[in-house]
Description:
The chain contains no helices and 23 strands. It is globular and about 45 Å long. It has about 250 residues and is mainly β. The protein starts with a strand and ends in a 9-residue tail after the last strand. A four-stranded antiparallel sheet has the order 1-2-3-4, with no helix packed on it. The protein has a four-stranded antiparallel sheet with strand order 5-6-7-8, with no helix packed on it. The chain has strands at about 5-10, 15-20, 25-30, 35-40, 50-55, 55-60, 65-70, 75-80, 85-90, 100-105, 110-115, 125-130, 135-140, 145-150, 155-160, 165-170, 175-180, 185-190, 195-200, 205-210, 220-225, 230-235, 240-245. Strand 10 (about 100-105) and strand 11 (about 110-115) form a beta hairpin.
Amino acid sequence: MTRGTDVGILAGGDLLVSLTLKGLLQSWSVADGALRHELQLDAIQPELGMALQGNSVLVTSPQGHAFLWDARRGEQVRELENASTPLKCCALSPDGRLAVSGTYEQGHPPGTLRFWETATGKALSSIDLDAHSVKAMAFEPSGERLAVATSENQIHLIEVANLRRVRSLAAPPVGTHGLSFSPDGSLLAVACSMACFIILRTEDGQQLFSHSDTNDMQASSALFSPDGRTLVWGQGDGTVGVWGLPPERSTPP
């Protein structure tokens, strides 16, 4: 792909979805690299949000639009109710029933989380986070909680069943680039905006581990493996570092 900036693999592992800097959404065969479907979006990638779950791709835009795209069929499934505020960062719940996005510009109300039912596109309750913007978010694998990082260097844990905030953790002062839960939800990997990542315990926010390299001009996601035994992070020299977690997680990685 030309100037690809965001990528993910669908459930089943046979299709890859990418987003380019020019706003081209594409799906590819993992087996042979063939292009399956593509959709040209009306914005450039830095203004767009993208999240994958099952066969669905959630896309959000600075015009407040959010829609679901079926990557296997190459068809837009549903337009979600317009939020009327710029949207970017987004996520889909593990069961695919809930879509969420955050505002990313200063304005009123600032730092707002917007929720929708994916089956109907209907807007649900929103949550104001007392921040100018939302920087990153991730659902716990169980779907019970949502972690949301804001521009005020806070990470809020949201109880999904009631759409309410239950706890706030301190985020790195350099800003948050991405979030990833361990499979059991006990740990949260926080990828920072400048060449580092940390591991927080979700129960109390205690920092258990941190790592940094010397290339402070790059940022990469830090992601747990599905079995929770390893964590990977893209390094400034173009390599991927792999860290192992102790069996009982009683000591730092």
